[in-house]
Amino acid sequence: QQQGVSKTEITIGTIQDLSGPLAGYGKAVRNGMLLRIDEANEQGGVNGRKLKLITEDSGYDPKRAVLAAQKLVNQDKIFIMAGHIGTAQNNAAMPVQFEKKVVNFLPVTAAREMYEPLSKFKYALFATYFDQMRAAVPALVKEKKSSKVCAIYQDDEFGLEVLRGAEAGLKAINMDFAEKTSYKRGATDFSSQVARMKSAGCEMVVLGTIIRETVGTIAEARKTGFNPVFIGSSAAYTDLIHKLGGKAMDGMYATMTVPHPYLDEASNPIRFWANKYKTKFNEDPTVFSVYGYVILDTFIQAAQKTGPNLTSDSFIATMDKLTVPSDIFGSPEGKFTPTQHLGSNKSRLSQIQDGKWKIVSDYYKLD
Amino acid sequence: MQELQVIFSGVAQGCIYGLIALGFVLIYKATETVSFAQGELMMLGAFCGLACVNWLGLPFWLAIPSSMLAMAIMGWLIERAVIRPVLGQPAFSIVMLTIGIGYVARGLITMIPDIGTETHTLQVPYKDTSFDLGGVVIGATQVVVVTATALLSLVLYVVFRYSRVGIAMQASSQNQLAAYYMGIPVQKLNGLVWALAAAVAAIAGLLLAPITFVHANMGFIGLKAFPAAVVGGFGSLPGAIVGGVIIGVVEALSGFWLPEGFKDIAAYIVVLLMLVLKPNGLFGENLRKKV
Amino acid sequence: MRFIFKTDYDQDIRLAKHGGHVFWYSLLLAFLVAAPWLIEEYWLAQLTFVLIYSVVGLGLMLLAGFTGLFSIGHAAFLGVGAYTEAVLAARGWPFPVSLAMAAGLSAAVGAVVGLPALRVKGIYLGIATLSFGFIVEEGLARWESVTGGNAGMHVKGIQMFGWEANTSESFYMVCLVVTVLSTLAVLNLLRSSTGRAFVAIRDSEISAQSMGIHLARYKTLSFMISAALAGMGGALYAHKLQFISPDQFNILQSVDLLLMVVIGGLGSIHGAFLGAIFLITMPQLISLGKDYLPAAIGQAPGLQAVVYGAVLIAFVMFEPMGLYGRWLKVRTWFQLFPFYRKGMFKRQKSFQKSDRLK
Amino acid sequence: MTTDGIVLKLSNVESAYGPIKAIRGVSLQVKQGEIATVLGSNGAGKTTILKTISGIIDPRKGSIEFKGEDITARDPSLIVQRGLMHVPEGREVFPLLSIRDNLLMGAYTRQDRDGVARDMEAVFNYFPILRERSAQDAGLLSGGQQQMLAISRALMANPDLILLDEPSLGLSPKLTKEIFEIVVRINRERGTTILLVEQNANMALNASDYGYVLENGRIVMEDTCANLREKEDIKEFYLGMKEEGVRADRRWKKKKNWR
Amino acid sequence: MMNDILLSAQNLSVRFGGVLAVNNVSFDVQRGEVFTLIGPNGAGKTTVFNLISRIYTPTSGQILYDGQVLTDVPPHAVANLGIARTFQNIELFEHATVLQNLLIGRHTHRKTSLWSEMFFTAKTRAAEIEAREKVEQVIELLDLQHHRESMVAGLPYGVRKVVELARALCTEPKLLLLDEPSSGLNVEETEDMAFWISDIKNVLGITVLMVEHDMTLVSKVSDRVLAMAQGMELATGTPAQVQSDPGVIEAYLGTVDDVSSLRRENAKESA
Ligand SMILES: Nc1ncnc2c1ncn2[C@@H]1O[C@H](COP(=O)(O)OP(=O)(O)OP(=O)(O)O)[C@@H](O)[C@H]1O
Ligand SMILES: Nc1ncnc2c1ncn2[C@@H]1O[C@H](COP(=O)(O)OP(=O)(O)OP(=O)(O)O)[C@@H](O)[C@H]1O
Ligand SMILES: [Mg+2]
Ligand SMILES: [Mg+2]
């Protein structure tokens, strides 16, 4: 008897940050997932089984993530863990899941550990920070003809991944950073870091930053008359940047995989989707809502394909030859194989123009 | 030149630490408890300001007194509801209470749909103004922070040093029993102190808002204010400011000069050095018991 | 009421004061030993966490509850223990040896932290330990060659002399043994002269000194023992979580540890255990309970923090003596049963006295 | 003032510390303008009575009236405002406040600045050392000096009734006499009523009008001081007067016979 | 016997800011005697005690104890040399029982190591029982049986004074410093205290240095008395000599007539 799958129901677990520093994201991911589940259930579920989502709160704390995973896996008997947020949290929770053959399905973190080293139970969908920066930074350097590239990054695994990706990209074009400077998560003052980059004469700054730090850094730079090209990762690709930072943010670049769903989006299906979300949750959707939605969409596709006999093993067998076509959001096509558990390593570049993200490049090709 | 710029930014940042530290010292001086909720009160204050400006449409200059008032009432209510019933218990119980208050405040704000989990900007009139003093750029936000901090600490210093109520607050913290014997309305004063501390927190929140934005976790900056208060000497109001500025400047300079990572722990290294050299801080009282 | 007629000084020294003690504690131990066969896996995992935190709690209780030194950076010791264990286990050291190393290294770090404690007290000590906690956390993050930095590191299972504790049952047993042994050691210490010296320092430094107690030595010792226990807890924690990263040992963890001993009841060994039970089950209870609430509240982000904070507040307000204090009252109530008088446990007005002069 | 001239009246007051009853049904009265004293051995409950009166302990039973008003279990600050001041056992000064600030705190409930200044001058005259050290932290004073400060602080409130708990504790013989002189003088000049608890029974009985004897939390005897001084038991157990040679080498104690 | 000096203070002075608390004071305490310091409040008596127990360091002068210079000894080691003290304001371990307080007094006689305590070896057990036996002797001597298990925090003032004396005795000192042992005790209890002090001297053979304001007690038990005022020596000698010294009467004892006169006049007036 497969745990989490009954005649009528499939139980999906997810761990989000609902009370910690990323509570905003966690909530959006969950809502995105719920939206897709409701759609699926309205259409009769997956092979006749309704989907049920159980959310746990980790508060962005790895220990609580383990406790939550234990509860979900051993108490609630989930079939799959989908869209778990946070790198350290995933790393901490995965052993608990794997003991019971619970797949860690498309976590919301672009760290390489989410599919490396290869494991039967690990699947990730979107390009990692590493790949994003590796592709985008050299391209932008060429375009802008920058000779001095610097980096400011959050002193944790996330920031380091961005840094390493950019470093790898620069190496490919025989460059290195002119200056690297870091800050601790939660920092609010970036004056000394900016001063440092300014005195190094940077022309381009790679931002291993999330939201407030991105805004803080750019604002501080603009204030002191320091105007290099700024490029961030998909972690900085959120509407909050221009909402919080205002005019000063114009011109900033960020890599991205799925677009932000503006309510007045030109593309018809996205606008329709965004308004549906807004009606349901009385909240504007964010790019994280899209992640949540896409993650569950992918799960539903895979579960559908697996057929009525849904077990961990049969699900993995399906996953290992699954191709996910591009969707309404224009996300890149995903392809899984028994040796490649990352769906896609493609990303593109977006820039803030007149207080809104505009996509400015095609998907970069990476070998 | 760059250094000067860095130092000034450090001073401004330090004043923010000092401002929060002022709240700690205030409560410590008057009740001998260390309030771990001060950062959260500041966060609530910032949200108050946000409510006033963004949702009620008040002008910023009116939002300041209104949030101070609102927060003062809030502080008083908190005291009334949870602190007063345990007044007289060992100070440590109350420290625990403040941790609980911090959790609840953060959680409640997060629970507000659509608002709590977001980051907001507080529109302040002076936000984009800055002065260029021959290469050193000074933001108006920083000038306002420095000025407000200096004024506030001066006022509080005078109140504690010379006013009857101020002295009575100190008396109650040193020997609560004797304060009762003297007819000092310890409970009322306690309420007053919390109201005052919350109002100070509101100011800190409003001044900080343009710099760090308003969000549920902005109170964590309070952790940097502890070292500030300790360096200055925990019982001393001017000490809080001086300590804050020291920490701010050391932090800024070590971020500029020293290898990666030092900026983030500079504050704590300063504290440890301070405690070794001068255990009671720069302006702390000499705390030796006479037997 | 139970009256015990004492005929021998040994009766005061003995750990179990009467037959009741012997009976109940044997029963408890029997249950704990049989637990893997009695309770579900999920609850066994919780129980394991409780044991791990109890070990840490014992240490902190010794420091805060019995020596009166509050540490707001205790997670640092947990971290040192966890990383030591992780590194040594990866090199294939047998568990007892690596555990001893984890304890020893933590104790060494504890001795260093103890140094400021010699000169400062109260809030100053709190901030000193807090600062130290930050520095250790940063150190763990920066020493990438050994700790793997912020990426964290995976921890191998327990192995010793050819035996591996690779099931949750066997790991639970290991934790139980460590817990029982640490508890006995702490109890023994507390009923002998070192323990009394700790209590003396807590109550009056000046008079402890005049009784010939070397303040510096005993404060450092208290820090070391406390750190060693935290280090052992950390070692078990590392194996339990199988993945450690520096931010697991941050200020929030330290505050949790402190809450644990306070809620348990400062100054009692029972308190360390009750506090650990509380700390582990509380979030679980919240997440079990929230499904029964209306979705608008139950699923709202931040609920957990609110409930956690509210429970904490309620505790301090209604039971400042902690869970153990409550237990004592309940027990007295039963012992006195028909003669219980109203107001017997009514809280007296009490008055805070400055800790600044001690 | 009430017509019958009774300032303080305790009826059947019972107080306890947790399960331990410290006083069991104490009734006593203090008349306007008199000095009353409570004698009793260690742990008899004298301090507890005073604490109960000034609202530091809530009694389990009974009631306390001050100037005709029921003040049972009221807030201590309110009781002080009504004109009752307590000089506690063990000094209880504010250790980190200067002596002057300590005295000012004594006058916290008063509004008349001139009166406060006058009283400050008066206590400085009683105890010149306090004037000399007025800027020093009170915690650094010697034990006896702190006791002077504690008494002065109470005088600063210019109360109607002073509760004095062992005022002579730690004072030199000379100062002990001076203190009692001051007490009597204040009683006479200002009409302040005084309830005195004192181990130095000789002094206490000489200075007071009316006395109560407390044993094990119960009042076992009450009378005018003149009468009390004549009682054998009082003589033996409280005044230490006994035939020479009887006690000197006797190592056991004669039991008090009123228990 | 004459030259058997246990403690010798030589030209001790200590200054706190503007206050010269002790000013060039010298005295010798003979082995086996009861030596009393008297003097008005603030004379510096407690400060002398604090100098001996090394809480303060003298500004000038030195203290010799048993031929050793005490001023170099760290404060916690003073007890190991056999000096125990009580405090004027009572410094007990409030949140412990009387028994535990007294056991802490046995600390200087600790023989067990940390490890043997952790495993509670037979040696530790034996040491515990031995400590307990010693403590029981002191309890017996000072009549504290009733209070053995009471929390100190709840004891009346007078009992605490006795507990503090007991705790000092548990260290089995050679020199006992008593700071106002009788304050807060009534006549009867003061008499007991007098008996105990004589017992301590005569039976236990402990030298006593005492500060006391109760002249009855002082005359009863002291061999020699030193009167101080404003940090300086005023007079030394037998109790009787010192009590009749005009300087001492002037500064400390006051004139003989007592308050009762005041009171009776008053009564007459109102009558
Ligand atoms: N805080 C307390 N907790 C428990 N019991 C107490 C407390 N304070 C006093 N007691 C008990 O109450 C009784 C009366 O104490 P109280 O202090 O009133 O005595 P007293 O007459 O003032 O004695 P003394 O002359 O020593 O000051 C004593 O038996 C004492 O043990
Ligand atoms: N640490 C200190 N700082 C400043 N002044 C002090 C200190 N210790 C003592 N003094 C002062 O020194 C003087 C002597 O104090 P000490 O305590 O020795 O007096 P004492 O003789 O014991 O008096 P009492 O009989 O009142 O206890 C006092 O005037 C006191 O104020
Ligand atoms: Mg008393
Ligand atoms: Mg003295």
Q: How far apart, in Å, are the first and last alpha carbons of chain B?
A: 55 Å
Number of beta strands of chain C: 4
- Structural class category of chain C: mainly alpha
Count of individual domains of chain B:
1
- Taken from the alpha-carbon principal axes, the silhouette of chain B is globular
Bound molecules: adenosine-5'-triphosphate, magnesium ion
For the sheet with most strands of chain C, the description reads: 2 strands, antiparallel
Largest interface: B-C, 65 and 55 residues
Q: Compute the separation of the termini of chain C in Å.
A: 37 Å
Strand content of chain B: under 5%
Keywords (chain D): Amino-acid transport, ATP-binding, Cell membrane, Membrane, Nucleotide-binding, Transport
GO molecular function (chain D): ATP binding; ATP hydrolysis activity; branched-chain amino acid transmembrane transporter activity
Organism (chain D): Limnohabitans radicicola
Domain ABC transporter (chain D): 8-241
How would you describe this structure to a colleague?
The complex is a heteropentamer of chains A (367), B (291), C (358), D (259) and E (271). In chain A, 41% of the residues lie in helices and 17% in strands. Chain A contains eleven helices and 14 strands. Chain A has helices spanning 23-42, 62-75, 87-99, 129-144, 157-172, 191-199, 212-223, 239-245, 268-281, 287-306, 312-319, and strands spanning 9-16, 50-57, 80-82, 103-105, 122-123, 149-154, 177-183, 204-208, 229-232, 253-256, 323-324, 334-335, 348-352, 357-359. In chain A, helix 4 crosses helix 5 and helix 10 (287-306) crosses helix 11. The longest helix of chain A has 20 residues, at 23-42. The radius of gyration of chain A is 20 Å and the shape is globular. Chain A starts with 8 loop residues before the first strand and ends in an 8-residue tail after the last strand. The model of chain A has no long low-confidence stretch (mean pLDDT 89). Chain C has 358 residues and is mainly alpha-helical. Chain C has 16 helices and four strands. In chain C, the strands form two sheets. Chain C has a two-stranded antiparallel sheet with strand order 1-4. A two-stranded antiparallel sheet of chain C has the order 2-3. Chain C starts with 9 loop residues before the first helix and ends in a 23-residue tail after the last helix. Chain D is 36% helix and 25% strand. Chain D has ten helices and ten strands. In chain D, helix 3 runs parallel beside helix 6. Chain E has two domains: 5-82 and 173-270, Rossmann fold (3-Layer(aba) Sandwich), CATH 3.40.50.300; 95-164, no CATH class. Helices cover 38% and strands 23% of the residues of chain E. Chain E is built from ten helices and ten strands. A six-stranded mixed β-sheet of chain E has the order 6-7-8-3-9-10, sandwiched between helices. In chain E, strands 2-1-4-5 form a four-stranded antiparallel β-sheet, covered by helices on one side. In chain E, helix 2 packs parallel to helix 5 (157-170) and helix 4 (122-142) crosses helix 5. The model of chain E is unreliable at 267-271 (pLDDT under 50). Classes of the chains: A alpha/beta (367), B mainly alpha (291), C mainly alpha (358), D alpha/beta (259), E alpha/beta (271). The B-E interface holds B 291 and E 46, 50, 55, 87-89, 91. The structure holds adenosine-5'-triphosphate (2 copies) and magnesium ion (2 copies). One adenosine-5'-triphosphate (ATP) sits between chains D (17, 20, 22, 40, 42-48, 89) and E (153-158).
